[in-house]
Amino acid sequence: MKTIIKNGKIVTDGASCYKEIAFENGIITAIEDVIEAAAEDKVIDAGGALVCPGFIDSHVHYTLPGTADNVESGSKLAAFGGVTTYIDYVTPLEEGSESEAIEQYIEKCGEGCIDYTFHAEIMGWKSWDDNTLKEIKEAGINSIKVYTTYGTDEVTYEGIRALAKAADKYGIFVEVHAEDDEVCAKTGARFKEEGLTAPCMHGKARPAEAEIVAVKKMIEIAREENVHIHIVHVSTGEAAELIREAVESGIKITAETCPHYLVLDDSEYDKEDACFYIMTPPLRDKESKEKIWENLMSGIISSVVTDHCSFSVEKKRKGTSCFDIQPGIGGTETMAPILHHYAVGERGMSVERFVDTITCEPAKLFGIYPQKGTLQVGSDADIVIFDENREVTIDYRNLHSESLYSVYEGYKVKGWPVTTICRGEVVCHEGEFFPGHVGKFVKAVF
Q1: How far apart are CA 105 and CA 102, in angstroms?
Q2: What is the pLDDT of residues 7-24, one digit of tens each?
Q3: Sheet containing 27-32: order of strands
Q4: What are φ and ψ of residue 49, in 5° steps?
Q5: Quick one: 397 exposed, middle or buried, by C-beta within 10 A (0-12, 13-18, 19+)?
């Protein structure tokens, strides 16, 4: 028995067409003008909506201890947002091999309802060697994340250079949380000394200069060593411009940004509940936001992610200063509606590019294309029916995060996922969740 989706506009790989799509046993089996349905087949009427590959949020923290959303709630809220695959982070064990850490994370993420893969993390507090890289590749992971800040987590610039060169030999690239630790530390110390510690000071205490310095250094390493480096969650306009110049000169730099850097700005820190808008890097000014938009619209920034790292209202309000409030916000569930409304509806991005930004672009980057991120015969039947005309006012009470708030509360958006199908099984439809589907680990193809 097969399932056929009719009366929809298929959007995938930069193109769109009015065709029907069939799948069976979790795999797409046909995409044709008309697919005849047998008596036993199931037919889904898309009602004229977009039929897209399942969305991919390639930067989440569902496994991070202490956050409001764990794998179970995180994967569920993701499914409600049309996301069928997420990419989380494997933190190394204090004692134990990389392969042991990866196995533990696969076991954790098996509790979720959608598919997943990982980025490996290399931390300053644990050494790595050639065997570490072999184990990462053998596990089916093609990216390693490092931090240029956060105390003992920091990997020095020369450490990143050595890692990027070594990883490149295995077809693995390095992705970087780019905030210069020295800039952050010196600014933070001065602010504390001067008593400038209120939540509203967050953006100034971790200034744009920190990202700019670190991005310049990453571009230098990528150029000098001829290696691919990916910059995560770009927040400043100047960093976006530096990345554009590097890409145009042939340097192997890729970049992502988040909906909150496209839609929000540092004026949020003037609000009474500024704590809810604290994440790292911080929100920047309106000029930065415009530059990021320019580089997303032009394709220099190739993908949009959420950096979903949610904390409860209680935890966010527990801190009293910009230095002790838990940094991080949620966002996976609203990623596609926010991006569609502001990119397609207000900026004129094509619907094909909108879909690619959260499907085939991340899938190709992280080695899971064409299993994921596309609608092709033989690909996984990860499909989202997205009603581009549905108008919704975002209300945290209608969302599914355990954080119980949204930074987009009250925003009116046009475009909303209606049905989410993961490997041929309907996980969500019209606000109803269908339990039972079990997420699987997806290996990168090198």
Answers
A1: 5
A2: 999 999 999 999 999 999
A3: 27-32, 20-24, 3-6, 42-45
A4: -80, 175
A5: exposed
